[in-house]
Amino acid sequence: MLIKFYNLGSIKETELDLRPLTVIIGPNNSNKTYIAYSVYALWATIVSSFNFCLSAPTKGGFPSLEKLGFKSHESHFSLSIKDFVDSFYEEFSRNFSIKRRTMKKDSMGERFLEDFFSDSSDKLFKNTEIHFDSKKDLLKIFKENAIRLNNSKFNYLPDDKDGVEFSINIDNDVLYFKYNRDNLKDLNTEKILISFFDHLFPYQLCFPPERNAFILIYKLLINSIETRNGIETPLIDTYGADRKGKLPEEPFINNKKKGHLHYPEPVEDFLNFLKNVESSKSPSTDNNFQQIADYIEKYLYNKNKINFKFFTSEDMESEDTESGDIELKLNVKKNLDIDLHNASSSIKQLSPLVLYLRYQAKVNDFLIIDEPELGLHPESQAKLLEIIAIMVNLGIRILITTHSPYFMSHLNNIVSGEINNPEILTQQASSLYLNDSRAFLSMDQVSAYEMKKNKLRSLKDEDFGIRWDTLSDVSSDIQQKYFEIYKKKEMFSNGKK
User: Fold this and answer.
1) Above pLDDT 70, what percent of the chain?
2) How far is residue 249 from each of residues 108, 236, 255, 264, measured CA to CA in Å?
3) CA–CA distances in Å: residue 224 to residues 98, 229, 233, 260, 271
4) What does the buried/exposed string (b/e) look like for 26-60 if buried means 16 or more CB atoms within 10 Å of the residue's CB?
5) Angle at 367 between CA 98 and CA 291, to 5 degrees
6) Backbone CA torsion sign across 338, 344, 347, 352
7) Which residue, 89, 239, 429, 489, could crosslink 437 as a Cys pair with Cβ 3.0–4.6 Å?
8) How far apart are CA 425 and CA 401, in angstroms?
9) pLDDT at 74
């Protein structure tokens, strides 16, 4: 997925090829976070456009379901991926370029990049543009995500009481939706498609570098936002559609003119994610993601476990809290749960990722992690990269920004496995920290960039894998400085100047 950026901070023009794992390195203040947040904004636009495209036919003025590739049969319906993407792209391609005052109220509401980044000056992104122009890329992503859902079963709607279940099968780029009952007359096909697309592009989430602090005070921040707006928790994503794809009457409640305590949209989505996790009744049923959460607790938490403690009236005598309160605790041994603020910085830094894997992770999610190495020992950084690679192989698209030479060095190891030979790959996995062959990625799954001279420069090299010289050059430079300092001391001791 090729994305082009214009006039973004100090960047005049550059482009990024978004792969299942995308890594960006570069000096401080070189606009890496701007790039990451902008990709997040574009992805959220596409996701909301899908949902809007499907819900709009009920309101008139948009393509019929037949035009979008929908075909009804006696016991199922089918959807041509190519026909849908062609029609979708034709109707909504204007929303794939984000710039000042391009979003129209008659399509998806007013949306400016200034609001997304919470730029109070209204000048910082005045001439910024972000473009995604390739229908071919969109079709490829659509197919990849649909294939991951092949032979999957879903409920008609999350709150459906009739037990209607549909299964997804894909054959020759045609999706087939089959049901567990014969009478389909009372089923709302638009809602069925929305339910499917909620799994096709389910979630985009950013872990900002401030996550260590946010996980301790997220309740305070959310309460401040809600108090200022006089609303319940909005649960509104970046471009106005809620998690079920429904567009509100007044979509963009995150508006500075209404006295909103405003943060960049990825930060507010992260705070809402923590609130959602807290209100989750039970962990996810996906055992793969539960296993990866267990990996973090085993290999990076020293077997300690993060959990929610629900306070009852009996707890009030010994706890400074109220009945019904929920607090994050770290279980360090039997019958001992400590407050999260008393845990190490590495545990606070990784807790959002554990909670995401435990409660929210879905195949086809898109995750951005800003500086995942924060607070981690070098060996823990290498283990975390293996965990990230496993998440990618489980179907989560991930973009990270990093300053870690350990990440980049180990990334070269991870793309060196014999992906097409399971027997060799199993043997190679014994050299990894987690001994899990799922931590190997093909070079095609990865894109790696360095921000240099206000442009993204690819680090992929046909002969040497991934080149990350600028980070290793610093180590060499520091070593050279040691020799220079030592040599000058010797010269001074020998009476030379």
Assistant:
1) 73
2) 11, 12, 15, 22
3) 30, 9, 11, 9, 12
4) beeebbbbbbbbbbbbbbbbbbbbbbbbbbbbeee
5) 165
6) positive
7) 429
8) 28
9) 67
Quick: pLDDT tens for 401-425: 999 999 999 999 999 999 999 999 9
Percent of the chain with pLDDT over 90: 27
Could you give the C-alpha distances from 297 to 82, 124, 380, 392, 412, in angstroms and in order? 43, 41, 12, 19, 25
Beta bridge partners, 331, equal 305, 337
**If you average pLDDT over residues 305-322, what whole number do you get?**
59
- Residue 79 exposure: Cα atoms within 13 Å on the Cβ side: 25
What is the number of other CB atoms lying within 10 angstroms of the CB of residue 113? Answer: 23
Q: What pLDDT does 446 receive?
A: 95
Q: Identify the residue with better confidence: 287 or 51.
A: 287
The 10s digit of each residue's pLDDT in 237-250 is 333 334 344 433 33
Give the gyration radius of the chain's Cα atoms: 25
- CA dist 203 and 384 (Å) reads 22
- pLDDT of 90 strictly over 90: no
Cβ contact 296:288 at 8 Å: no
Rounded to two decimals, what is the model's pTM?
Answer: 0.83
| CA separation for the pair 492, 490 (Å, rounded) | 5
User: Where residue 83 falls among pLDDT bands split at 50, 70, 90?
Assistant: confident
DSSP three-state, residue 355: helix
Contacts 24+ apart (CB under 8 A), 433-438: 433/299, 433/379, 433/382, 433/383, 433/386, 434/295, 434/299, 434/383, 434/386, 434/387, 434/390, 436/386, 436/390, 438/389, 438/390, 438/393, 438/394
Distance of CA 133 to the CA centre of its chain: 21
Tokens 């930060």, residue?
267
pLDDT higher than 50, residue 45: yes
Give the residue from 250, 218, 216, 220 showing the smallest Cα distance to 234.
250
User: What is the predicted pLDDT for the residue at 168?
Assistant: 77
How far is it, in rounded angstroms, from Cα 455 to Cα 15? Answer: 8
**Cβ-count burial of 433 within 10 angstroms (0-12 exposed, 13-18 middle, 19+ buried)?**
middle
458 with 443: CB under 8 angstroms?
no
